[in-house]
Write a structure and sequence with these properties.
The chain is an all-alpha fold. It has one domain (12-98). It is built from six helices and no strands. Helix 3 (52-61) crosses helix 5. The two termini are 21 Å apart.
Length: 100
């Protein structure tokens, strides 16, 4: 994941969040990635959604807000793409990082 420590537009809390997940492995094929993992995690954090459908809907409606933090050059992923991305993460590693 990209190092955000020097990005001036990113809040302290967001930096801490991204630093916490810095070593989370992204198993996707790098050449096929349309949505970087840090953008996906940011969307999930801001959405506070219970389903991928809710998160995808928020991403579509609040794209301008999301882009004030990260590029989101390809917009936000659909709900099924979000599900696939989270399914590709090492669940145990992710849970150790996310559940306190």
């Amino acid at each position: 994941m990209e190092d955000l420590s020097a990005a001036p537009h990113v809040s302290y809390e967001t930096r801490v969040f991204f630093d916490h997940f810095q070593d989370l492995a992204d198993a996707r094929q790098r050449d096929k990635v349309m949505h970087p993992l840090d953008e996906i995690l940011h969307l999930a954090l801001l959405a506070e959604a219970e389903t991928f459908v809710d998160a995808a809907r928020l991403g579509t409606k609040k794209l301008a807000l999301l882009q004030s933090f990260r590029a989101f050059l390809n917009g936000t992923p659909s709900y099924d793409h979000l599900g696939g991305i989270f399914a590709s993460l090492n669940a145990e590693h992710f849970q150790r990082r996310f559940v306190v």
